[in-house]
Amino acid sequence: MTGNGGVLFKALDDNCEHSGKGAGHAAALSHAQVVAGHAAAAADSFQPANDAADASPDRNSKAGGRLAAGFRRFEAWCAHVDLAPDLGSDIGSRKWLRGLATLLGLSAAAIAMWPDFSAVEAATAMPVHSRERDEFRSQSIAPLALGADSGRHMGASPLVRPLAKVPERPSIQLVSTLGQGDSFARMLRRAGVGGEDISRISELVDNAVPVSDLASGTQFDITLGRRPVPNAPRALDSLDFRARFDLDLSVERGAGGGLALVRHPIAVDATPLRIRGTVGSSLYRSARNAGAPVAAIQSYLRAVDKYINLEDGISASDEYDMIVAYKRSAKGEHEVGDLLYAGIERGGKPRLQLLRWGKDGQMFAASSLGKPRSVPIGQPVAGHITSRYGKRRHPILGYVRMHAGIDFGAAYGSPIYAVADGTVTYAGRHGGHGNYVRLRHAGGLGTGYAHMSRIAVANGAHVRAGQVIGYVGSTGLSTGPHLHFEAYRNGHTINPAGLSIMAKPQITGKERDAFKAELRSLLTVEPGAALAPMAQPESEPAEAGREIDRLEPKQIG
C-alpha cells in the first residue's frame, strides 16, 4: 500500500518481525514509533507525485525537505516537552512551572499587541480658520477636565468701545446685625451708611429708645439708594428694626430728602400665666408636664423651700399654684418674666401664699404680714455634708477636738449664699478659717463661712438671703475644697442643723393694703388664660373698592 496507511502497516510488520512473533499475534507500538510513522508519512506527502519530478529534484524540493525535517523535529520536541500541561495538577513541579511560564508569555504577548484607542477628530462641515474655531469653542459646552474653555471672553473687535464708567445698581437691600460689644454707629458704618446719615439716624432713634439699650442680636433691614456724588457713600433710603417687644421703628427718607422716624406700635397682651396642678410623685415633673417654664419652677421651689420642707412637708395630694409674668405680642413672640405668686393648697384651703413685692423683688408670705416670722435657714452651698457638728479627729492636727460647724463638700469656685438677711461683721483672713465671712442676723444670731477661695462682700455691707457672699475654696487648715459653715447665738457657737431665724415684718400700714389688693388681683387670673388667642383690634369697615359699589344707592329702612 502507498500513502500514510502503507507506511503505518509497514512499521507494524517490521515490529512484528523484530519481536519474533507470528502474524497471528497483535503488535504493539510505542508513542515514539507512532510519531515517527506519522513523520515518515508526512515526509512522503512532500514528495512530488510524478516520476519526472522524482528523477530530477530541484532546489525547491531540497528546501521543502529541510522545512519538513524542521517541522518534524519541532513536533517531536513539543510532544516530548508538553508546553501546556494542566495547571491544576502537580503544582510546584518543573512541569507545572513550565506551563505557568507558557501562560505568562502568552499573556504578555497579548497585552503587548493590545490595540491603541486614540481620539479621531472629525472634519468640520466647512473649512474654518483658527480664529473662527476658537470662537466656536468658547461658545460650546464641554467638561473642564478635558481642557474646555467654556465662557472664555474673546478679544473685542474694533467695533467694541469701552465704557467710560460702570452703571451702579439704583438701590441695595441688606440685613445688618448688632453684635455683642458693637455700637449702633459702628454697625451702620460697616453697612455702608455715610457719616451724616449716621448722626441723624442716631439722633432720631435715641428720641424713641436709648441707643445704648438696643439688645445685641437686633437685626436691621437697610435699604441704600443712589450716591449723591461719585465716590461718596450711598444715601440711606430706609431702616427698619425691632426696638422693643412692643415697638417697631422705621427711619425713612421723605420726598424733601430728609430722614424721619416712624413708630409702629405692636399690640401686647400682658396677662400673667397661671399654672395649677397636683403635686403627685414629683412637684417638678408635674409642673413640667403642665407646661411651666424651667426657670419659673426653680424660682417656685426656692421660694417655697424657705417656708416648707420640700422633702417631707408636701404630700402627693397637695396642689401647687404658680403665677408667672408673661407677655405676648401680636406678631407671635412671647416673653416669660419673674415668678409673681407661689402657693400650696391642701384640702382646697391655702396652706402657703407667697407674693413678689417691693423693689428688691422678694417673696413675702401673706399670712405673716406685720408679724415677725421664724424662717428656717437654707443650705449655704450646692453640695453634700461631709462632717457634722460635734467632736471629731482633726484631719490635719491629728487629735480629737470640737468641730463647731458643718462641712459641705462642693466643687472649687462654687458660689456660697447667705442663709438669711444680715450685716457683714467680718470679711477677710481669719487664721485656720482662711478667707472668712461672718454675718449678724436678727435675734442675736450669726453665721460664719470659712475656707473661701474668694470673698464677694465687704465689711459693713447689708446682704439679702440667697445673695452670693463668696466662693468655695481650700484656704486655711483645709485638706480640700469645701465650706465650713458655723452658727452663733450671742457669740457662742451652736449646731447649725435645723436653725431658724426670726425675720422682722417688712410690710406694714398702707403698704399692707396694697399687698393684699395685688394678691386678690392675681388670684382672679384663670389658669391658661394667657395662652388664649389674642383679641384682634376692631378694624374700621373697609371702603368700597369699586366705583360702581360707591355709587350704589343706600337702602333706607
TrEMBL record:
InterPro entries in UniProt: Cell_wall_metabolism_enzyme, Dup_hybrid_motif, M23ase_b-sheet_dom
Region annotated Disordered, chain positions: 528-557
Biased composition (Basic and acidic residues): 543-557
Ubl conjugation keyword on record: no
Domain M23ase beta-sheet core, first and last residues per copy: 401-496
Coiled coil: none
SUPFAM superfamilies: Duplicated hybrid motif
UniProt KW keywords: Signal
Gene3D superfamilies per UniProt: 3.10.450.350, Glucose Permease (Domain IIA) (2.70.70.10)
Entry-linked Pfam families: Peptidase_M23
Source lineage: Bacteria, Pseudomonadati, Pseudomonadota, Alphaproteobacteria, Sphingomonadales
Protein name: M23 family metallopeptidase
